[in-house]
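subagent[fold] <- orchestrator: predict structure for attached chain, return tokens only, no commentary.
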Amino acid sequence: MYKFEMTRPTTIAEAVAALSSEEAQALGGGQTLIPTLKQRLASPEMLVSLTGIDEMKGICVDDDGRVCIGGGTTHAVVAADTRYPALSALAGQIGDPAVRNRGTIGGSVANNDPAACYPAAVLASNATIVTNARDIAADDYFQGMFTTALEDGELVTEVKFPVPEKANYQKFVQPASRFALVGVFVAKFWDGVRVAVTGASEEGVFRWTDAEAALSDSFKASALDGLSLSGEGMISDLHGTGDYRAHLVKVLTGRAVSAAA
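subagent[fold] -> orchestrator:
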């Protein structure tokens, strides 16, 4: 590690002010940033810890029936909440107890790791990402591997999830990291089905639109018969080829539909 300063604001306004410096970087649960600092892949002069901001913590339901989760809420708290069961189950599969008690939903969504679990839930649920400056629809938010619509100094203060009629998340775990080798979140709403995939594509989380169309007509695993994805553009590494990941997407989508139904 190297020398840096740290500040711990207690309000969103204080955090935004602290992040106005080009040398400052936000620190949520630190599950990605701290290892990055240890490897000297990042070297901010100032870390702005978000753990003291109470207005960014907690879970509630708004007037539209959406489950609203503060950006500073830990995975463990999400896992213990029962108002969106599929999302709670997803949170309970993240990392290990140490990670779940430190990592936050806001940090995960802001980082947009291509193998993280939350982006699949956000995209499949058609959630809204709330920042200190604006509301961003999920379809507009994720813009590629580790890339989002967030601008400099913008914080994820809350994520608002519409609760579908049925939903399920299936994760093929990479056992060393506990990240998703492939993860699929299926959400059935009254007006159609959304399917979001994480861990598979070089472009990060994406929607499998062919599966969405088929499942909107018939919400059964058999509706996926005849569909397939190309391994081109999928991540290929020592854990699995692109073709293998493409195959897993279809298998896990079918399992998610069966479990949800």
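orchestrator: received. Logging for downstream: The two ends are 49 Å apart (CA to CA). Residues 5-49 form a domain with the Uridine Diphospho-n-acetylenolpyruvylglucosamine Reductase; domain 2 fold (CATH 3.30.43.10).
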